[in-house]
Amino acid sequence: MLPPITSEAGDNYTGDEFVLWNKIYHQDQTPYYYIGFKQYVKYLYQRLKLTINQTFNEEKTRVIRKNRLKKIFRAIPVKFESFHYITDHVKIYYGISNIQIYYKENLIYSWRENCPSVSINVVIKKMLNPFENRKTRYIADSIMVTPLGRGNGFNGRSSNFIIQYANRVIWVDPMAEPLLALKRIKLHWNKITDYFISHIHEDHIEGLSAILKLALLRNHRINIITTQKIFNKLNQIFSFLFPDFLHLVNHINITPESPLPYHQGYLSIRFNHHVLKSGTLGLKVKYKNNCFALSGDTYYSEEFEKKYPDHPAFSPDWYREAHLVFHEAEFFNKHTSHTFYTELKKLQEKVKAPILTYHNSANRFLLPAVKEYKTYIIKKEKLYCS
C-alpha cells in the first residue's frame, strides 16, 4: 500500500470493499495481506470496517454488527525501505516511493515503472474542454433522468444517475472514473450543480474522490445532498485523502420528516431497509407536478409490507405520486440484502407508475430495465424516452 494518491481519475484506496464482499459471498476465509506503513493500513481497515462488518440478522429485521473483516484482512506494517518475505519465492520491497515484487528473483512488478507518463490533469482537460461552453440540454418544465450505469460493485457500471430539473443538474452516487462518463454524454463537470449520496457502500461513492480532486484543483466547493449521519461518514472516509474535506464541500442536509424545497422543486427521502446503520436513502424529485422516484438500495418483500405497514421502505404509497420509478433488483440470489425480482413484480402490481430495474448487470428480460445513457423525460405528467 502506497501513500494516498488522488487525481481526477480517482484514488488508490478505492476498490477493496467489493473484493472482500466477493470473498464473503463465496464463504472464503482465506485472508488477504495488506502491506504498508501503519497509518495507511489502519486507514483502509477502519474505512472497510464501516461497511463490511454490518449485515442483517437471520430474520432480516434489523442491522447487526459482525466482525468479519478481522478474519480476512491481515495487516503487515512495514518500515521505510524494508522488505517482507511472503513465501519462499516471493519478495516484496516496500519504500516510500516505490513497491517492487520479485518472484524467484525476477522482477514482476514495479509501481514506479507502471506509473502513467502523462499528467492526468492534461488528459482530463483535453477530454472535457470541447463541452465546457456547450449549453446543457434540457426540456423546460420537465424532470430528465439519465442513467450512466445500472450495475453494482460486482458487475457492470455502478448504478448512478443524472437528474435535471429547473436549473439543477444532480448527480446521484457518482461512479468510478466519473469524467469518462460525462464525456460520453457530452456534459462538462462544471455543469453539475449538486451531488446526492444515497449511502456509503463503495459502489455508490467510488467517483467522489475524483470529484473532490477537481474541486481542490479548481478551488470550487461542491454541494453534497444527504443526511447528517451519512455526511459524517463521508467526512470520516475522505478526510484522510482530503484533509480539507469540509472546506471543499457544502453540505445540504435532508431529512425524511419533510420534503426539502430546492430551486423550484422538492426533494424527498426515505430511510430504506438495508445493511448500514448510517442509513440508505430512497429519493423522490418533484417539479411542476412531475415526479420521479428512485428506490435506492433496499430490501422489500410483501411479507414485510404486511408486517410493517407504516415503514416507508415497504409501503407502495411512497411511489403514489411518481410517474416513473427506478427500483433496484436482484435476480440470482433471494437471500441478499436487496429486493428479489419476484417481490418487485408484486410491488409493480400496487404501483401505478412503470418500474424499471437497476443495480444488476443483466436481468435476463425478467423485468424491464433502465437503459444506460438514455434520457427519460417526465413532462406534464407524461413519460418520454430519448
What does this entry look like structurally?
The chain is of the alpha/beta class and 386 residues long. The protein has ten helices and 24 strands. The strands form six sheets. An eight-stranded mixed β-sheet has the order 16-15-14-13-12-11-23-24. A six-stranded mixed β-sheet has the order 17-18-19-20-21-22, with no helix packed on it. It has a four-stranded antiparallel β-sheet with strand order 7-8-9-10, with no helix packed on it. A hairpin with a 4-residue loop joins β8 and β9. The longest helix is centred in the first third of the chain and has 15 residues.
Task: Give a short overview.
The protein has 386 residues and is of the alpha/beta class. The chain is built from ten helices and 24 strands.
Sequence-ordered SSE layout with sheet pairings:
Elements: E1 6-7, E2 10-11, H1 16-25, E3 32-36, H2 38-52, E4 54-56, E5 63-65, H3 69-72, E6 73-77, E7 82-85, E8 90-94, E9 99-103, E10 106-110, H4 120-128, E11 142-149, E12 160-165, E13 168-172, H5 178-184, E14 194-196, H6 208-218, E15 222-226, H7 228-238, H8 245-248, E16 249-253, E17 260-262, E18 265-271, E19 281-287, E20 290-294, H9 302-307, E21 324-328, H10 341-348, E22 355-358, E23 376-379, E24 382-385
Parallel strand pairs: 3-6, 13-14, 14-15, 15-16, 20-21, 21-22
Antiparallel strand pairs: 1-2, 4-5, 7-8, 8-9, 9-10, 11-12, 11-23, 12-13, 17-18, 18-19, 19-20, 23-24
